[in-house]
């Protein structure tokens, strides 16, 4: 099973990557920029695997760039307390 199949696993996967990047000294700006790039890639290239991903994909598809950046920022906040440190 892929981490994309289960929302909780996807959150934990992202959180682990976020914590690793922060521990390696990646700035908050770089993290949110990367989150935006990942969100853009997922929205255009990956079929949603669950209801949560479908909602995010739908929101992303109707949002302008500023709103997409806000979605990416919110996702970073959402996952920041998940995963291992």
From TrEMBL:
Source taxon at top rank: Bacteria
Record's InterPro entries?
DUF3243, Uncharacterised_YmfJ, YmfJ/YflH_sf
Q: What is this protein called?
A: DUF3243 domain-containing protein
What organism does the UniProt record list as the source?
Answer: Bacillus salipaludis
